[in-house]
Amino acid sequence: MLKWDHFSESLLVRSVYLITLPIVLVQVVGIIIFFELHWDLVLKRSAQSIVNDIKILELTKNTEEIDKFANTLQIIKTDRKQINEIKPISNWIFKKRINQSLSQIPGQFTASQNDNFYIVSNILDEDYYYLIPKKRIETKTVLGFFLWTIAISIILSIISYFFIKKQIQPLKRLGIITKSFGRGIETPNLKPSGSSEVRGLINDFNNMQNNIKSTFENQRNMLAGISHDLKTPLTRINLMIEDLNNEEIKSAISKNISEMNIMLNHYLDFIKNEKNENLDEVITDILIYEAANNYQNISFLSNESKKVLIRKNQVKRVLINVLDNANKFAKNIYLNSTFQNDSWLIIIEARLNDKSNKPSIILIIDFGEIIGHKKSSAQLTNHYKPEDLIGKQVAAVTNFPPKQIGKMISEVLVLGFPDEKNNPILIMPTKKINNGGKLF
Predict the structure, then answer these.
(1) 396: CATH
(2) Residues 101 and 24 in one domain
(3) Average of per-residue pLDDT across 97-110
């Protein structure tokens, strides 16, 4: 869902602000100046002119010539019976000016209006009314002025929007190319466009991208050359050890040479298969089984199946390297492949900790999303085996300082009760609960 906070942070919107706001401010100032110095003055003079005409009519109201004067002054004298739907004057500026001017006439004159006339009457003498046609005061040029002002603001804002959008498009393309290049996707050089600053930025990015690609290419070529060159002396050493009589030394040397050949083959596979490797859609559980197929001491705690888009050879090589090391230094390997929040997690759950003074088990405990995974070393070998604890829920204290036990750091303290020989028995819930729940 698009949020306004994210929308207002875009360069396009901010640039439109910078251009549109000054335009609007200029228009507002222009309107204020127009009203204060022009329109208000015009209405003031119009109101004074009407009042001067009414003064003349008031001087001749009891003579026969009043109708002649009224026609000449474009004012109609009438009685209340000929007036309907009287209401207050809607133009507040004219209302203020006419009331100020009417105070100059003896009596208590007030002003109102209907659909066609402004109506002036004397509260002390309501036998007659003066009707002033609205066309004498109002003009369509004011409405035209407002419409022109609004139209200019809208047109300039639209022009600014499309102009700035066109200037920002090269930056957007540069952002897409940069993101793809950062993810290792093969990207072409971007054609420079836009302002001189943006074109310079694009050229600098193209140069940087080409230099990085050249550096990687040189490293790959060097790695491939070294790998090929090392195979020759390794083959000679293999032939030379055939003359050794000591089978133990012969076997040890042969084993080390085999390991070095495996590493060299990995490097060569990297150069050959992954130089321009594209993203492939794979099924995770099948890939895990393929990588772990040659290890007899591995147990799968969880191996969820899901289609993902990855570089298959790179991920598989990483898994094999990790499993090779685990196979050398651990008696048992426990592999847990799961998905959390669209992230693929591969975790080794537990193994024997033979480095501590007393036999203990290293636990990797999942405390939920907030705390995450924590390590703990506990002397549980009297009652538990590592494989017995896989998938079990335990209670632990998470806010104690980390403590070094043997050559590892224990991050949490697992809780339990002592048996008759003071060996710990873990506290475990009898029903499944959410990971990270608090004990109370």
Answers:
(1) 2.40.50.140
(2) yes
(3) 84
Contact 201, 228 (CB under 8 A): no
End-to-end CA distance of the chain: 39
CA angle 89, 93, 96 (to 5 degrees): 75
Give domain status of residue 150, yes or no: no
Closest CA to 265 of 223, 218, 298: 223
Residue labelled with tokens 């026969």 = 64
In which residue are the tokens 């897409």 written?
A: 176
Query: Distances in Å between the alpha carbon of 155 and those of 162, 185, 396?
Result: 11, 42, 67
The CA distance from 81 to 128, in Å, is: 10
**What is the per-residue pLDDT for 183?**
77
The DSSP call for residue 242 is G
- Name the helix (H) or strand (E) containing 186: none
How far is Cα of residue 419 from the mean position of the Cα atoms in its chain? 55
Domain ranges, residue 400: 281-426
Evaluate whether 409 touches 376 at the Cβ level (below 8 Å). no
| Residue 25 identity | L
Question: The tokens of 172 are what?
Answer: 């957007």
pLDDT at 434 over 70: yes
From 219, 242, 276, give the residue that closes a domain.
276
Q: How many residues can be counted in the chain?
A: 440
Indicate yes or no: pTM above 0.85.
Answer: no
How far apart CA 99 and CA 321 sit, in angstroms, is 95
Can you list the alpha helix ranges (DSSP code H) found in 245-375?
A: 247-273, 284-291, 312-329, 368-371
Which pLDDT tens digit goes with each residue over 266-284? 666 666 655 555 678 888 8
What pLDDT score was predicted for residue 270? 63
pLDDT in the model for residue 143? 66
pLDDT of residue 358: 63
CA distance 25 to 32: 11
DSSP 132: E
**108 belongs to a structural domain:** yes
**Does residue 251 carry a pLDDT above 80?**
no
